[in-house]
Amino acid sequence: SFAGKNACYYGWGTYFARDTGYSESYAQAPDGDIRSMLACRVLAGEYTKGYLYNPELTKDQIRASGKPPEELGIVPPIRLKKTQTPYDSTTNGKGGGTPDMFVTYHDSQAYAEYIVDF
């Protein structure tokens, strides 16, 4: 899983931007010339705003906090309490009705369709 490899601000998952402009600053070229990004199909499913995640917390600190994992951004929040069904993904909660980015928690929720060089 690629979850949590870089940023974990809205959850410990894999981040996907709605627009290329959001991702452009993250696309770095090893030689400083041509940058690349992946254009992906993402199955966001049912989503909600993510909790802010502190990647510096140790496992012991997480246990000691007494907070459930969904409030720490490790897993998505619970959507249906009766069945303990979580949301499929989280977002930054911005974008005038449609979020700017999505955080998925399972690698099977996305696949790369194109490599874009620029």
Strand content: 25-35%
Give the helices and strands as they follow along the chain.
EHEEHEEEEE
Shape, per Cα inertia axes? globular
Calculate the mean pLDDT score and round it.
Answer: 81
What portion of residues is helical? 10-25%
Q: What's the β-strand tally?
A: 8
- By DSSP (H or I, 4+ residues per run), the number of helices equals 2
Major β-sheet, in short? 4 strands, mixed
Q: Which spans have pLDDT < 50 for at least 5 consecutive residues?
A: none
Structural class estimated from helices and strands: mainly beta
Rounded to an integer, what's the Rg over CA atoms?
16 Å
Strand order of the largest sheet: 1-7-6-3
Distance between the termini: 27 Å
Task: Summarize the structure in words.
The protein is mostly beta strands. It contains 2 helices and 8 strands. It has helices spanning 20-24, 59-65, and strands spanning 14-17, 36-42, 47-49, 78-80, 85-86, 89-91, 101-104, 110-117. Strands 1-7-6-3 form a 4-stranded mixed beta sheet. Strands 2-8 form a two-stranded antiparallel sheet. It is globular and about 50 Å long. The protein starts with 13 loop residues before the first strand and ends with a strand. The mean pLDDT is 81.
SSE diagram, text form:
Elements: E1 14-17, H1 20-24, E2 36-42, E3 47-49, H2 59-65, E4 78-80, E5 85-86, E6 89-91, E7 101-104, E8 110-117
Parallel strand pairs: 3-6
Antiparallel strand pairs: 1-7, 2-8, 4-5, 6-7
Give descriptors for this structure.
single chain, 118 residues, mainly beta, four-stranded mixed β-sheet, two-stranded antiparallel ribbon, 10% helix
